[in-house]
Amino acid sequence: MSICVPEPTRWAVARIRDGLSYATKRFFHEHGFCYVNTPNITTSDCEGAGEMFQVTTLISEAEKLEKNLIKNPPPSEIDVESAKLIIKQRGNDVAQLKSVKASKQEIGAAVAELQKAKENVLKMEERSKLQPGIPQKDGKIDYSQDFFARQAFLTVSGQLQLESYACALSTVYTFGPTFRAEKSHTSRHLAEFWMVESEMAFAELEHDMDCAEDYVKFMCQWLLDHCMEDMQFFADKIDKSCIDRITMSAKTPFARITYTEAVELLTEAVKNGKKFENHVEWGIDLASEHERYLTEVKFQKPVIVYNYPKEIKAFYMRLNDDSKTVAAMDVLVPKVGIILSTLNLYR
C-alpha cells in the first residue's frame, strides 16, 4: 500500500496549468485561429531554436545485436566454406540419384536437402557480415538502417508546419510539448516545456504586437477570474507581489519601444551609475538583466521591444526600410524576461 503525501504547491500549479491551457485554446478560437497538430517527431530543424534531442533505434538495436553475437557468435570464413562444400555434396547426391533413375520421392528428398543447404549458406553469409556497434557507412553513421531511414528528432518548434498551413488557413496556431537539448541546466532552460506558436498571413508588425498583448492580457485576466484561490496561495507562500503583477499586466497597456530606444535607455542608466554584467551597445542581444531593468525599473510593467538589428535575428525576418533592422518583436514581463517572440513576418 502506498500513501501519497499532498503537495499543495504542485497541485496549485497543475490547476493553473489546466486553466491556462483551456484559456489559450479559447482565446485563439475566439480570434479566428485554427488549431493545428504539429509533429513531435520530425526530420526538420528550426534554426537558432536550440539543440535537438535525437530519436533513434540504432543504439537499442546495436545493444541487442551485441548481446546476440556474444551468445551466438557469427560464423567464420571456414564455417561458410564448409557449408558450401555441403551444397556441393548435396548437388552430387541429386545428380547421382537422377543418373540411376531413382524414384521421384528419393530425388525430391535430395533436392529438398540441397535447397536447405543453400538457404543455410545464405543465412551464414548474412550473419557473418554482422558487426557490433552502430552501423556505419563511409565512416559516418548509416541512418538508412534507422527506424525512419534518416535522422529524426524531437521537435523544437512547429513553425515550419504552421507556415504551410497559414498559406491556406491564414491564421493558425499550435500548442504542445517542445524539446530543447540545451546545455544550461537552469529553471529558465527546460529540456521539455509546452509552447504556443501562431502564424498570421498578411499581418503587419503592429497586428503581431496587438495579438501578443491581447493574448497575455487575456491569460492574466483568466487567472484573476478563475484561479484566484491558487493565486492567493502563491501570494501567501511564494511571491507576495504575484497577484499585483498579474493585475497590472491585465489592466495596463504595455509599453512599446524600439530596440534602439531600449539601448538608449540602458546606456543612459549606465551613465547614471547602473552597473550591468553585460556590456550595452547597439547590436547586442539584450541580456536577461537588461530586460528586467526595462520591465521592473524603467517602466514597471510589460514592455514590447521591436525592430531589432538584422544580425541578431533569423534570416527570414522582414527587413525594414532602414536596411539595418528587421520587423521582429519580443514581449518582456517583470521577473521573467521574454515570454513571447515574433516567429515570421512577410511583406
UniProtKB/TrEMBL annotation:
KW Aminoacyl-tRNA synthetase (keyword) present: yes
Keyword tags: Aminoacyl-tRNA synthetase, ATP-binding, Coiled coil, Ligase, Nucleotide-binding, Protein biosynthesis
Coiled coil: 100-127
Residue ranges constituting the WHEP-TRS domain according to the UniProt record: 79-135
Domain Aminoacyl-transfer RNA synthetases class-II family profile, chain residue ranges per copy: 172-277
GO MF assignments: aminoacyl-tRNA ligase activity; ATP binding
Highest taxon of the lineage: Eukaryota
Endpoints of the signal sequence: none
Pfam families attached to this UniProt entry: tRNA-synt_2
Gene Ontology BP annotations: tRNA aminoacylation for protein translation
Keyword Coiled coil: yes
UniProt name for this protein: Asparagine--tRNA ligase
